[in-house]
Fold:
Amino acid sequence: MKNIIKVFGISSLLVLGSCSDDFITKTPYTQQVEENFYKTPSDALKGLVAAYDILQREGYGGWLMNTEIASDNCYGGFGTADSNVDVERDRFQFISDKEMNNPIWENDYIGIYRANVLLQNLDNIDWGTDTALKTQYEAEAKFLRAFYHFRLARVFGDIVPLDHTLSSSEFETPRASAEVTYKLIAEDFKFAADNLGNQNYSTPGNDNYGRVTKWAAEAFLAKAFLFYTDYYNKADLAGVVSKSEAITYINDVVNNSGHNLVSNFSSLWLASSASESATYAGEGNTEAVFAIRYNGSGNANWNLHDGNRFKVNISTRGGNYGVYGQGWGGGTVTASLYNAYGAGDVRRDATIIDYAGEALGYDAEANGQRQYTGYGWKKGARVTGEQGSGDFQIDNTEDIYLMRFSDVLLMAAELNLDSNASFAQACLDRVRNRAYGVTDNSHSVPATLANILNERRLELALEGDRWFDLIRQSMDVTAAAVNATSLGGEFAVTFRPETQGWFALPQSQVLISNGSITQNPGW
Structure:
């Protein structure tokens, strides 16, 4: 969506305030509102772009940051002089400020709302004979609706699933059971998987570059299946997708999508390629099944979201160091993650900045870095001058991967363990061969569930998967990974299993629900 998402900022067209009865009964002649907007396929495209647009709002307090900090991959970090809120931005210790996760709640529900507005207006559009275009837009909108619901459900547990825009009488709708929510998620992902074409849009210059594909929908359907069936101990995905069907979908991506692993893991990210002397693979590389598309065209305009606002949060605090650009030092990486990589695994140095090992001369005390471990994010970190003439906080250009082909391979390995062990082994070996720079399976490990889950941590570290791979196993597994009680001081962490792995709901949402929504357990 990089080539079109900056063009149409139409969210104001889709949000209607309360007005007089006279206004409600008459359509405005001088401005576009929902009632007079959706007439042409071009209008539908603008509505679809508005639904995609929310993907770009990944930043401070957002989904990627808070889920990685909750896991054993990161501490909270940021600065020693920052507020108590930032001090608590640490491995599931969000205690006093119940608004900590509000950006996740707010942005994903806006995305759901925009998708629903478009879906409800598809029949008002004159499609002519191009009914296939209508089906494509419906499939894309349903994918986005499922994606936003899935993010909310994995973070907060029971949520309010919405398959339509709410009327005033529905504003206090209570949360639904997981089965109800995941039924909607499964149906939407399945519709997208079954109705999108088999194109691969990973090549820049394609008119549909950056938009969701059949392959992305199939991959996320498998991810939803794994999380739901594991966490809730179910045999299928809310009665919609069986395990055999989930296997068929993920194997289709492996075998038929045209996606593949790039040869050099370090080439996947700007900072990793710069520091490891690798040629940057570019944002349209074959491994990118789905990503958030950014560019630097905002030119320091804080009212736009075209640039990547996330990476300044996790980049090096205190200034530019070597190839690494200035940031705020959030999410300092744990020694546990750094030491988890085996000798010769190129992913360690492509994933993590080792400040001493890279001789960067970094002075954590002088720069006010909280919870300095010696390690920081390299994946997705800023590179010096990345923002060009824009603002270094908001105009960074690098995309954020939402689904890489290596994730597809590891999900295929996990799902095929019982039914096709040789295929599961082959998928796991492809990931490990790339990690060690070999082709002969000389670093192969048996395709067991434990080995696959460990490989997921190493391969997908700092990409928003670790927390969910922990809690879908059990609270005991999560506690064993996260607890760091012996380290002392600001590094001591104790997981609280009474939370069941769910984040705190924004307290403001609890209050305005008039009792229809209660706070999550343990908060």
